[in-house]
Amino acid sequence: MDIIDIDTQGDFVVEVIENSGSAPTNHWKEASQSVVSLGEGHPIVTEVWLRVVHHAKLIYNLLLPEIWLLVQAIDYYALDITAFNEWFATWYQRLNFGSFIAAKLLFPTWRFNYARGFARWTHHLAYEDTGHITERNPTKLYQYYLPPRLIQQLNAAKGRLRTVLFRGLWEPCHQLPEANCACKEKTLYDYQKHLYSIEVWPLETVFLRNSIHDILANLAKFTFEAPASACGQCRQDYKGIVSRVAAA
Questions:
Q1: Is the preceding omega at residue 147 within 30 degrees of 0, hence cis?
Q2: N or C: which end of the chain has fewer CB within 10 A?
Q3: Interacting residues of 199 by C-beta distance below 8 A, sequence separation 6+
Q4: What are the distances in angstroms from CA 181 to CA 153, 187, 191, 199, 210?
Q5: Residues near 69 by Cβ (< 8 Å), separated by ≥ 6?
Q6: Of the given ranges (31-35, 69-73, 212-216, 241-245), which has the lowest mean pLDDT?
Q7: Which tens digit of pLDDT belongs to each residue from 9-20?
Q8: What's the average model confidence in pLDDT over 64-93?
């Protein structure tokens, strides 16, 4: 099989000589033809999937938005997407990662079953981004998106991280008011004041403008200790409490 005559300047025709039957699939009328002409679609995307399907020399010069066009072509011609997983992994490894790219890579890494990339960017969005996790589609092919339940689960996991942080940091605030001493009010005030000074309190407000990574970095600055004159109940191991929260 040879791939002949690809005009990437505009309108184009791709001819597959000695059709092996591997593309298009046998429910297309072209399956019985010895010469197949494809007159629509993105030229480079078409060349990519033809080369993958016919085991020709592969090319990887697709831009990120063109990955959606490749998925569209795979669906349109009823191709086996698993045959493209290895190609996608190589394409991904050659990609120059810029800013604001994480949300754009969720769908491609999921669709091509590239677990390493999907794990990297979900972790990034959970720990290093602010707000809810969303995906971004740089094309108008809005029919291609992650299953909504998957996005919900990712946001639920991020919400659990916030809950763990809040419950841990709130522990002294819950315990100190029950102490039978005259120093508990000042100790509780000083504890929360110190959390505020390192920009981790109040957590609900901090979470709106800071990532979990930033909050954890700020928790590393925690140095509060109750004064020696405070009672035993007020002289808790606050550093230990915050360290356990940060490590959770």
A1: no
A2: C
A3: 206, 210, 218
A4: 44, 11, 16, 29, 36
A5: 41, 42, 45, 139, 141
A6: 31-35
A7: 444 444 444 444
A8: 96
For the stretch 26-71, pLDDT in tens is 555 555 665 555 656 789 999 999 999 999 999 999 999 999 999 9
Structure token pair of residue 241? 């409490």
Q: How far is CA 55 from the centre of its chain?
A: 31
Phi/psi region, residue 84 (left: phi>0; alpha: psi -120 to 50; beta: rest), is alpha
* SS3 at position 37: strand
Which residues have C-beta within 8 Å of that of residue 81, sequence separation ≥ 6?
Answer: 71, 74, 111, 112
Contact assessment for residue 216 and residue 147, using Cβ atoms and an 8 Å cutoff:
no
DSSP lists the bridge partners of residue 37 as 15
Joined tokens for residue 120:
């990297």
Contact, 24 vs 77, CB < 8 A? yes
Please report how the helices 64-76 and 102-111 are oriented relative to each other, as an axis angle in degrees rounded to 10: 30
Taking CA atoms, 174 is separated from 14, 139, 180, 184, 215, in Å, by 71, 49, 14, 11, 21
Alpha helices in the chain (DSSP H): 43-53, 64-76, 85-93, 102-111, 115-127, 148-175, 184-197, 203-209, 212-219, 238-247
pLDDT for residue 99 is more than 90: no
207 Cβ partners below 8 Å, 6+ apart? 130, 162, 215
